[in-house]
Amino acid sequence: MIMKPIIYLSVIIILLSACGEKKPATDNTGKAENTNIVTLTDAQLKNASILTGKLEQREISSVLKLNGKIDVPPQNMVSISVPLGGYLKSTKLLPGMHVNKGEAIAMIEDQQYIQLQQDYLTAKARIGYLENEYNRQKDLNQSKASSDKVFQQAEAEYRSQQVLISSLAEKLQLIGINVRTISASKISRSVNIYSPITGFVSKVNVNIGKYVSPTEVLFELVNPTDIHLALKVYEKDLDKLYIGQKLVAYTNNQPAKKHEAEILLIGRDLSADRNADVHCHFETYDKTLVPGTYMNAEVQVKNTKAYAIANEAIVQFEGKQYIYKVIGNRQFEMAEVNIGESENGFTEILLPTKDMTANAVFVTKGAYSLLMMMKNKAE
């Protein structure tokens, strides 16, 4: 007696489950409906303002996007050091300060400068005596009143003193002391450091009172009038570039401000990341461009013949790109595509299938209207 209610209950549960199952969407023929196909009524077709056309073969210019930073040629960067070392007595330089060529930018003092000037003046004072002695021994030797040995010794001392004076004079010129301005009553314990270029101070590595050796760099100066753009280009893109090619560059802070440039040099040494340096020269010098600033660049590479369709024909849905193919009277099928570069209102279709490039007709205007109708239908 207890078994019958249990059997009845089981049958009811099975029937309810069967009723609750969703049946796949079917058309009038009983076949599963393709959700990528949309069929419009005459009124819908008119309101959608749909235009159709075929894929066209067009010249599409691709844009190679690169990045790099502003650099300065080695000849426009100067490291200032002191050939003989010394203590920094004074300087007014600060990073970013402008300096002119020949301008005194620092003063160095040391006792060796005094000693060097003393040695020069002493050697110069003795040269007169040695010259007179040399001439006297020369006359005596010619008259056989003096031996050859004595004459040769006088000549050697005189020549050696000449070499010593020339050597000391060059050392003084090296540290910036003009030998014509020094005398017994005018010996300086300090020397001035002069700027060899007109430009800006990029680094100051010392402070007043510090002793600097000849190997230390006191200041770094930059002449920015010949700055260039150094771009990083991957190995696979190097063959797309050539010397003299034009490009535009811009900073992240001012992407709308374009700077025209031209490729001057293409590096042939690849780094560990498989990229090479490409150096570009700016057409117009812009003083707002500071060395070390990161920039983006866009290069128009060689035109290629490609199949393309109007930009309005492409719709984006769930992160993918689609176009609509005409498959019948008022009937359209959504087909996924991969797109390339866009130019002059047309977008390249990458690797189109054979049926796309033959006689297939696609929606070139009103594609988003079809997408909206399809989504509403699905809901």
UniProtKB/TrEMBL annotation:
<comment type="similarity">
    <text>Belongs to the membrane fusion protein (MFP) (TC 8.A.1) family.</text>
</comment>
<keyword id="KW-0813">Transport</keyword>
<dbReference type="InterPro" id="IPR051909">
    <property type="entry name" value="MFP_Cation_Efflux"/>
</dbReference>
<dbReference type="GO" id="GO:0015679">
    <property type="term" value="P:plasma membrane copper ion transport"/>
</dbReference>
<dbReference type="GO" id="GO:0022857">
    <property type="term" value="F:transmembrane transporter activity"/>
</dbReference>
<dbReference type="GO" id="GO:0060003">
    <property type="term" value="P:copper ion export"/>
</dbReference>
<dbReference type="GO" id="GO:0016020">
    <property type="term" value="C:membrane"/>
</dbReference>
<dbReference type="GO" id="GO:0030313">
    <property type="term" value="C:cell envelope"/>
</dbReference>
<dbReference type="InterPro" id="IPR006143">
    <property type="entry name" value="RND_pump_MFP"/>
</dbReference>
<protein>
    <submittedName>
        <fullName>Membrane fusion protein, cobalt-zinc-cadmium efflux system</fullName>
    </submittedName>
</protein>
